[in-house]
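Researcher: Let's run the pair from yesterday's discussion. Sequence first, then tokens, for each.
Model: Starting with the first of the pair.
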Amino acid sequence: MAEFEYGPAEFMVAQFDTDRPSAGVVDAILELVDSGTVRLLDLVFIERHADGGVDIIELDEMDGDIGLTDITLDASGIAGDEDVQEIAELLQPGSTGAILVIEHLWAKELASRFFESGGVVLHSERIPAPVLNAVAAEAYDELETDELETTES
């Protein structure tokens, strides 16, 4: 089997209306890491001030009051300066963003097997949870409507 040092990874960007994520967000990240589901490669915070100015805050610059000191990064720097600057432009003034680069450990062996057999992933797309839930609810409502119409016929 082809051995990869890293499996598939994903840039995830979250925006917060506060100056930092809550302790619950940090706990969720730590739980995913501890369970072996993901490996946290990089984590960068961006503050976008009301006047549009931007401050980049590295993990080691954050204080430990919400558990960030418990996080270890396995490949700090993967979120490069250009990436960070582009993402900063997406943030609304007066908000804070978090850039997480996570490796999907559950998919590492699958990626190795694809590579070993000459396969390549042609497309992969993450569907955000709110979008998936809205589409699923709509599909469920349509299914129920169709079943009711069939029953009434």
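Model: Moving on to the second of the pair.
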Amino acid sequence: MERAAYILYFLANLAPRALMFVLLIVLTRLMPMGEYGLFVLVVTTGEICDMALGNWVRVFALRSEGAGGRVRPRRLGRLVALTAGMTAVSLVFAIGSGLLRHDQGFAFALAVSAYLLAFAPLRLSLILLQIRRMHRTYAAVEALRAAGTLAAASAATVLAGPGFLAATLGLAGATLLAGLVGLVRAMRGVARPQRARTGYGAAIAFGLPVMLASLLAYTIGIVDRYAVDMLMGPHAVAVLAAAYSLARQPVDLFLGPLNAYAFPHLVRLYEQEGAAATGRAQAGLIATLAIVGGAIVSGLSLLAVPLLAVALPADYREEGAVLIPWIAVGSLAIATKFFIFDNAFHLSKRTWLQPPAMTPPALFGILLCFLLIPRLGILGAGISYALASLAACTVTALITRRIIPIPLPWRALGRVAAANLGGCLALVAVRGAVDPLGPVAVLVGGTLAFVVVYAGLLHLFGIAVRRVAETPWAPLGPGGRAGPGLTPALAKS
């Protein structure tokens, strides 16, 4: 994979997430808080069904075909059948989600169903484009989805009224259009899919543990929304979701494309050089996550108040400000679990270990929600998310260390932490100096101070930012160079 692919994957993941983030902020100003809370619950329920029941198909397809760069007709037929089957199962859960609501149950089920039907062809097209390494087309499809989602959902809210159903149908329509365009592009030059009579048992054996683990994982950071809805109502869900978007989206924006870019490389590395070499590459990815994710968490925590003053209406700000640091920490922890340690299950095809790895943290997270939210209110949701995410990351790391041992790069992490601390001190100093000028000046000045000092200290400590961007899996050696353990071809691929 060429080095430019990471930039394309970064932009491809950045566009829909960034514009979805913008959409969520825009809708806080276009919708009453109750309707916004219901919209968030629709998107949350749709995401749970789509990711938990369908995302394993992507992992399975990349694991089977990612190293070859092409899709064989029968495997393509199996992929289409699996996508259709999982979408049908998801729709059953969508209908059930409506039946469980006493208010607007039919509209809620319709909205979730539209979300799922729109995302199925999109997911299939992105799988095929990634397997075929059509990076530019992958980025273009995601850009089309991003722009269309923002325009269609906003327009639907303005023209049809500030209700959650109209916004969801607009979002679904734009997503469906992007997915169909992606499928047309992905299928060019590919043999027509043929019906596969076998292989479904192996696929389900691979995917069932992933589905169970995903459902358990969604108890962390998602079940709190339903608990808050039950205990405090949709208005509180609106505040929690808005703060969650502000704190979680930046982490996903930058770390999501890293995983999409690195996973096919890890597949090739695991198959060609084994677990030890893969572990060294994972150590390099941990250092990269610390460099990028640590900076995001520090910035969000120290700039929460001016960020909320700029981004959200006044009713969201006071409670949102206390949530953001907790959600930012939890987001980095859960991203490390998903993008580092979970890959050991997928690469070794030992996905049956995922549910045992997630069960204790999931139960811990549920317990914390129902202990802390009644006592601390919405703050309890943020604390429970952070603690449960840290527990999930720790438990998964302990279980996977026998599958793919990762030599943790403590020296590199120490250098990153020292640079981060220097950036934080610069941010605090500038924040105090420009505070009288207003929240925008605080945001701009504090961010610039942090970035300049942080980047300068990383360079001073021998960490080359360009190396991190080009080969994020290469272990940091002296002077920020790629360390030993990777062949030149794999280090640059």
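Researcher: Give me one sentence on the second I can quote.
Model: The chain is about 80% helix and 0% strand.
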